[in-house]
Design goal:
This protein has 16 helices and no strands. The protein is mostly helical.
Amino acid sequence: YTRVDFVSDLQKALEEDGPDAALEFYDKKIPSKLKDDYDLIFLRAAICVSGSRLDEAEALCNALSERDPENQDVIGLAAAIAKMRGNNAEKTQRMKQLLAKDPYSPIANVELGTELFMKKNYKQAKNYYVKALARDPKNEDALLGKGQCEYYLERDDEAKEVFKKLIEVNPYNIEGYLYLGKIAFANDEYKIASDNAKKALDLAPNNYECNMDWGMYERYLGHFDNAISAWTKAISIEPDYFLAYTYRAGLLDEQEKFDEAIKDYLMVVKLN
């Protein structure tokens, strides 16, 4: 039973049955000669994180750090654990530790960029994403973050190019299609907006935002049945959020379907 076979079977267990099953497989099947393998211990720690078994993950990270205090992957995983625990001070300290060793660390730059993005400091956030992309041009998180910064800085042409690149890297990234739709809509290109939102919707039919956006663009194209259908689906996904009721009520009102519109307006009042 080789190292390659073990990792392959472990990955299969993780994908098919989840972190707990993968960890059970790890403990039962790891060959004795591999029990002290640094990379495999790190892999076990990462699976613990994905399964929210943070105490185990932290203990493994500490053991790995004793063996190699400079290992950037371990520092990054420790930062992820701190983030999941809500320990922002620890997380930030770990990120700065990474940057001190590697100013272009994708992990650290994306994380710190996201912190600034959430504070709406888009210019500085963008700088971190650019550094991450300098090292890893196909980093999806960095591409998404940079694209969002360009979008909120109202640099539509630049944002469009970034989101196109994101979709080239991963044709299944729904955020790329959604933002291309938003940019097209802002420029009154309703058909392009609808086509992009529909691509996202086809990938994630139970996503609230996909249904909301596609419905809005279809409404502007005059495809009212599609709009109503999309917003009805959105309501089924998040029945306690008011926005889809608002959109649907407005269109029903315009169509003089007053009894149906009133029901939706009452739900808006009830929920908001």
